[in-house]
Every structure is written in structure tokens, then in C-alpha cells.
Amino acid sequence: MDPKLVYWTWALFNFLLVVVFASLGVRRIRERELQRHKRMMLAASALVITFLVSYPVKVVTLGREDLEVWEALSKWLLRIHETFIVGMLLGGSYAGWRAFGFRRSLPLSGLLPREPSPPRTRVLHRRAGWVAVVSSACAFLTACGVLWGMYARA
Ligand code: HEM
């Protein structure tokens, strides 16, 4: 099997785990379970970083994809996918940065108390977090289409 296909198949599986951990993270904070939310989101972030480290290694060792032989639809799908990736990275970085800023104001154990109007920094974290979570799910779905095209061409 083409090593590039092996790499992208692994990347898709890695991405699936990102979406699973991020979804579990959202569910945990909806139950006000702060520490579990934090752990799930940090696990998702670690998987994203693993991919970001692996990608330059893949480019150096296996090279880039030859987009010349891709049909127009696949190229469009790739561009849409990359846009969602940017949304995920920007939203996730901003949410992570905000969380780092307010981490000391949070309870160390127990449930996060419900507050009618949480501090603005937490509201910004929540919005950016949603951008990251929704973008990651859309990026995963478009990645499925991109990989399907790669298998079809192989
Ligand atoms: C970059 C990774 C993270 C992402 C993508 C993320 C995402 C989210 C999302 C989507 C929500 C809103 C859920 C809802 O609407 O009910 C949320 C809420 C929250 N997150 Fe995160 N989160 C991340 C990391 C963290 C970390 C590391 C902490 C703790 C230090 C944290 C603390 C919180 C808190 C306290 C809330 C509740 C905000 C409020 O409604 O007052 N998050 N997060």
C-alpha cells in the first residue's frame, strides 16, 4: 500500500479521536465537570499537536501530494477542509489561551457552579471553544471525502 495513504489513514483515525475527545469535553462541561472537561480538551489538543508535528516529517520523508492529478471536486474539498482546520486551530488556540488565563479562578475539585453571567473571559473561551469544536467536526467530515478520493485514485 502507498505509504502516503497509510499516513493519511492514520491521520484520519487520529482526527476521529480528536473529535471524540472534544465532544466528550463538551459533554463534561455541560455537566459542570470542569476537571474532566479540561482533561478531554487537553487530550484532543495533544492529538492535534501530534498531527502538526507528524506532518512536516511526512512532507520531508514521503513528499507532498501531486494535486495536478486531482480532479477539481477533490481540490475544492481539500480547500474547504483546510479552511476548517484553520478555524479549529485559531479557535482552539484562543480558547486554550483564555483557559490558561482564568485557570486559577476555577474550583480545584467538585462541580463548576452555575453562574447567570460568567466573567467575559469565560464567555470568550466558550465561543472560541465552539468555533474549534464545530470546525474540527466539519474538518473531519471533509477529510473523509478527501481520503476517499485518494483511495479512488490509488
Ligand atoms: C483548547 C481546548 C478547549 C476547548 C476547545 C474548550 C471548549 C469549550 C466549550 C465549547 C465550552 C462551552 C460548552 C457549553 O456551551 O456549555 C467550554 C466551556 C468551559 N471551559 Fe473549555 N475548552 C478547552 C479547554 C479548557 C481548559 C483547559 C479549561 C480549564 C482550565 C476550560 C474551562 C472551561 C470552563 C470553566 C467552561 C465554562 C465556561 C462558562 O460557561 O462559564 N476549558 N469549553
Can you walk through the features of this model?
With 154 residues, the protein is an all-alpha fold. It has one domain. Helix content is 79%, strand content 0%. The protein has four helices and no strands. Helix 1 (3-30) runs antiparallel to helix 2, helix 1 runs antiparallel to helix 4 and helix 3 (72-102) runs antiparallel to helix 4. The longest helix has 34 residues, at 120-153. The radius of gyration is 18 Å and the shape is elongated. The N and C termini lie close together (9 Å). The model has no long low-confidence stretch (mean pLDDT 97). The structure holds protoporphyrin IX containing FE.
Radius of gyration: 18 Å
Our count of domains comes out at 1
Which ions and ligands are bound to the chains? protoporphyrin IX containing FE
- Euclidean distance between termini CA atoms: 9 Å
